[in-house]
């Protein structure tokens, strides 16, 4: 049975408790040392069939970007510990985050780059936040996080060219430019102070991959030779995914130009109209990857809900969408890492309001 919340104070307290429970579930069910190595951490893709089941081997199924969002969720817990004066908790989360980043590097054959630029953008965002948490908590940088950020930023720069007027490629194959990489890349560049590059990507997304009819960002575009079927040299993928709206929303807030804030408010309204059901929150996506999508959107809606530059109605809409969506997963018991991390992220987002 879904829990009922009676007042805002009690609701905030309940969400915080649910976030802690969600963290415990992820860390105890899926988290473990990589190959038993001290100083490492990694998330198993699926929950073991039995408590005594053998932990995955280094050659088990691997989803790099799931680990990046696991890392972001741990960092959320660290920042929430700091905000509540629980420095011991924050230090524990900082240590776990550092171990997970090390585990990701080792599991990825001793390096941070991989074949997909969107994966790299997600990890760059998490590594940047890990370094920020270390600076705030320990007054020193997290050296491995700094190395990861610099390495991944360099690779993200290499994904950009002037084909189709700008934007980053999705993969090293360099045949597709899409929102899944350009949204988080724009946010990452804005956060590290590369505002001109971030603004150029945000503006490119608006020109190439924004649907004025829906008010949302579509999936991506393939550069193609001009033909009668594709006279513009573009083959467009029109699919709408929930998670694609989140990072560009955050990038617009980070850039903060008047047009960015106006677009951010309109995007929140479009998410409500196009992607949610009244009283039931945002739709939940199917599939292994899809079970992260709505959590990612709500992570960034939480930033909007707390941003006083936005109209009060936009902030209230974002808050309502997060809470309604989080209520849907209270009684879930996901057996995959992606779904378990999404559940934790939804609770954390609700707790932050």
Provide a descriptive summary of the structure in words:
The protein is mainly α. It folds into 2 domains: 19-48 and 60-158, no CATH class; 177-353, Alpha/alpha barrel (Glycosyltransferase), CATH 1.50.10. It contains 12 helices and 9 strands. It has helices spanning 8-29, 64-83, 87-107, 117-138, 143-158, 179-191, 195-208, 242-255, 258-275, 290-305, 312-328, 337-351; strands at 31-32, 42-43, 177-178, 210-211, 216-217, 220-223, 234-237, 276-277, 281-282. It has a 3-stranded antiparallel β-sheet with strand order 3-6-7. The chain has a two-stranded antiparallel sheet with strand order 1-2. A two-stranded antiparallel ribbon has the order 4-5. Helix 6 (179-191) packs parallel to helix 8 and helix 8 (242-255) runs parallel beside helix 10. The longest helix has 22 residues, at 8-29. The radius of gyration is 20 Å and the shape is globular. The two termini are 24 Å apart.
How is this fold's topology laid out?
Elements: H1 8-29, E1 31-32, E2 42-43, H2 64-83, H3 87-107, H4 117-138, H5 143-158, E3 177-178, H6 179-191, H7 195-208, E4 210-211, E5 216-217, E6 220-223, E7 234-237, H8 242-255, H9 258-275, E8 276-277, E9 281-282, H10 290-305, H11 312-328, H12 337-351
Antiparallel strand pairs: 1-2, 3-6, 4-5, 6-7, 8-9
Helix pairs in contact: 1-12, 2-3, 2-4, 2-12, 3-4, 4-5, 4-6, 6-7, 6-8, 7-8, 8-9, 8-10, 9-11, 10-11, 10-12, 11-12
Q: What gross morphology would you assign?
A: globular
Query: Into how many domains do the coordinates divide?
Result: 2
Query: At CATH's second level, what is the architecture of the largest domain?
Result: Alpha/alpha barrel
Taking all Cα atoms into account, the compactness measure Rg is: 20 Å
Per DSSP, the total helix count is: 12
CATH topology of the largest domain: Glycosyltransferase
Helix content: 55-70%
DSSP strand tally: 9
The largest pleated sheet is described as:
3 strands, antiparallel
Strand order of the largest sheet: 3-6-7
- Order of helical and strand elements: HEEHHHHEHHEEEEHHEEHHH
The span between the termini is 24 Å
């Amino acid at each position: 049975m879904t829990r009922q919340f009676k007042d805002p104070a009690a609701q905030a307290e309940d969400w915080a408790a649910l976030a802690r429970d969600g963290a415990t579930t992820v860390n105890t069910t899926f988290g473990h040392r990589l190959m038993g190595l001290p100083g490492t951490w990694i998330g198993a893709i699926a929950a073991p069939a039995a408590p005594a089941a053998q932990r995955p081997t280094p050659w088990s199924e691997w989803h790099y970007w799931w680990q990046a969002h696991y890392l972001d969720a741990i960092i959320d817990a660290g920042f929430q510990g700091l905000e509540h004066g629980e420095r011991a908790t924050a230090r524990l989360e900082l240590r776990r985050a550092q171990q997970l980043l090390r585990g990701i590097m080792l599991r990825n054959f001793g390096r941070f780059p991989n074949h997909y630029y969107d994966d790299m953008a997600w990890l760059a965002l998490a590594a940047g936040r890990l370094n920020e948490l270390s600076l705030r908590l320990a007054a020193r940088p997290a050296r491995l996080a700094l190395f990861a950020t610099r390495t991944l930023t360099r690779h993200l720069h290499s994904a950009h060219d002037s084909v189709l007027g700008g934007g980053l490629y999705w993969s090293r194959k360099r045949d597709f430019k899409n929102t899944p990489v350009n949204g988080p890349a724009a946010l990452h560049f804005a956060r590290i102070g590369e505002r001109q590059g971030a603004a150029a990507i945000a503006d490119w997304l608006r020109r190439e991959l924004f649907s004025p009819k829906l008010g949302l960002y579509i999936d991506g575009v393939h550069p193609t030779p001009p033909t009668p079927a594709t006279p513009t040299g573009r083959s467009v993928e029109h699919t709408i995914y929930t998670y694609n709206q989140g990072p560009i929303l955050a990038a617009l807030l980070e850039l903060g130009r008047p047009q960015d804030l106006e677009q951010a408010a309109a995007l929140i309204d479009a998410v409500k109209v196009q992607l949610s059901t009244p009283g039931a929150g945002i739709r939940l996506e199917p599939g292994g990857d899809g079970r992260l999508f709505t959590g990612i959107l709500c992570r960034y809606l939480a930033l909007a809900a707390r941003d006083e530059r936005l109209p009060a109605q936009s902030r209230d809409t974002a808050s309502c969408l997060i809470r309604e969506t989080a209520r849907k997963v209270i009684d879930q018991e996901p057996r995959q890492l992606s779904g378990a991390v999404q559940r934790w992220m939804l609770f954390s987002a609700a707790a932050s309001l």
